[in-house]
């Protein structure tokens, strides 16, 4: 009797162990692929309890969720010979659990290696401007490059995004200088366009003021009102330059002075009190008057006589030497002589 109970207990324990090993729980986001004695069963097991044949069946669970795979940064040279460092991220999911379990050993590692190779290929085919500003097209191209081999593995690539593009410091400085120059060019163009529009408006305003002179006066009064509104102690009024030219044109002029044109004044306008000048018609010197000689210091003290008792008149300032000639009627009478100075030519 005791032996019978032991046998029954052993059989019950074996059944419980077999039942525990033959029942599997499949989650909602999973699918079960069953291998019976190593042979693939065509039907996969869905969410819930999955019963397996003890010892004969072995089930492999496949995750059907979207998987996020970060791609490590890859160094490459763009088509315009710029060294960059680019990293990306790949979003994919399993669409055929049977092929994932049978056709590829580790589909996650396979997708990662293909993503790295495709990213380097995209870097070599693209220019730097495309990597910086046209990433949407590059993302689509990278997605197609990854999706072609992944479809045969039962994996679908949902989305590929280029995360960051790292540039060398020298290239960053060059691009900053280029951007600064571009902004300077735009500012100058905008300033020039503003000046052109302002000049056109001013030209139209000048035409209106020319046809209506009262508009200029109204504008002047408006300017005065605007300045006076600021409570300034000094008000500056514009004065037209044309009025100054008009007054200068109609102002009588006395003509140039003798000192400006370099000629001697006429005989009637000379001043007799200046010892530096010799008036025409006055005695140059007397033989018996030492005082008169001291007044006319510019006269040569030792004149040379010519034939007929004439003296050479000394050169005076402002007169050429060839014009200092004695009149033929100049004679010595009573120890004195006179010099007749010709007027200005």
UniProtKB/TrEMBL annotation:
Residues 21-179 form the Band domain. Residues 173-192, 252-345 are annotated as: Disordered. Residues 285-314, 322-339 have a biased composition (Basic and acidic residues). Belongs to the band 7/mec-2 family. This is Slipin family protein.
């Amino acid at each position: 009797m005791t032996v019978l109970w032991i046998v029954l207990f052993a059989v019950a324990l074996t059944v419980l162990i077999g039942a525990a090993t033959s029942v599997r729980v499949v989650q909602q986001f999973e699918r079960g692929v069953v291998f019976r004695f190593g042979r693939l069963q065509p039907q996969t097991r869905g969410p819930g309890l999955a019963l397996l044949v003890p010892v004969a069946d072995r089930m492999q669970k496949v995750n059907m969720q979207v998987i996020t795979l970060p791609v490590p940064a890859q160094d490459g040279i763009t088509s315009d010979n710029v060294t960059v460092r680019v990293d990306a991220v790949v979003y994919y999911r399993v669409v055929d659990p049977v092929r994932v379990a049978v056709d590829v050993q580790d589909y996650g590692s396979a997708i990662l290696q293909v993503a790295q190779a495709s990213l380097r290929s995209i870097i070599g085919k693209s220019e730097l401007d495309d990597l910086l500003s046209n990433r949407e097209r590059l993302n689509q191209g990278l997605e197609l490059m990854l999706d072609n081999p992944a479809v045969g593995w039962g994996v679908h690539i949902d989305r590929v995004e280029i995360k960051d593009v790292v540039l060398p410091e020298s290239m960053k400085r060059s691009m900053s200088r280029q951007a600064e120059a571009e902004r300077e060019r735009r500012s100058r163009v905008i300033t020039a366009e503003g000046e052109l529009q302002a000049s056109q408006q001013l030209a139209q305003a000048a035409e209106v003021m020319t046809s209506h002179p009262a508009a200029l006066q109204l504008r002047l009064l408006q300017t005065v009102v605007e300045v006076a509104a600021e409570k300034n102690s000094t008000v500056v009024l514009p004065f037209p330059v044309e009025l100054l030219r008009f007054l200068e044109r109609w102002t009588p002029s006395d003509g140039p002075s003798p000192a400006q044109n370099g000629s001697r004044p006429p005989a009637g306008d000379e001043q007799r009190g200046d010892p530096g000048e010799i008036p025409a018609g006055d005695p140059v010197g007397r033989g018996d008057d030492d005082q008169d000689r001291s007044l006319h210091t510019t006269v040569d003290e030792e004149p040379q006589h010519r034939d007929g008792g004439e003296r050479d008149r000394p050169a005076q300032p402002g007169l050429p030497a060839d014009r200092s000639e004695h009149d033929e009627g100049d004679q010595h009478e009573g120890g004195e002589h006179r010099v007749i100075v010709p007027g200005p030519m």
